[in-house]
Design a protein that fits this description.
Blueprint lengths: L1 H19 L7 H15 L1 H4 L18 E2 H11 L6 H14 L3 E2 L6
Parallel strand pairs: 1-2
Helix pairs in contact: 2-5, 4-5
Length: 109
């Protein structure tokens, strides 16, 4: 009887712990898909879906040479202020699918 009670207590405890676990992080492929969805909703009007529309401010996004910290600042400034970090990262990953001119240089001070 004691063994059965102990087994049941352990089973309940482990199922409760499993319910409280954080959801698994998205894969890079899932993040790119999320980033594309957000980009199409919030950015494509000015940049086109592939970032190939020239702007008054300069070259199209798909060929523009930019620093990674500047890109991140622009993404953060264009998405809603309360946008989760995952969404910002997702948009960054999507932009990287069509712009290979992003420089990985140290952040400016």
């Amino acid at each position: 009887m004691l063994r059965i009670a102990l087994f049941l207590a352990l089973a309940v405890a482990s199922s409760s712990a499993a319910e409280k676990q954080e959801p698994a992080e998205k894969t890079e492929k899932q993040l790119v898909a999320l980033g594309k969805k957000i980009f199409l909703r919030d950015c494509a009007e000015c940049h086109n879906a592939a970032g190939d529309k020239p702007l008054e401010a300069g070259e199209p996004l798909n060929v523009r040479l930019m620093r990674v910290d500047d890109m991140r600042a622009n993404i953060g400034g264009r998405l809603p202020p309360d946008a989760p970090a995952e969404q910002k990262r997702a948009v960054e990953l999507y932009i990287r699918t069509f712009n290979k001119n992003i420089r990985e240089v140290p952040t400016r001070k």
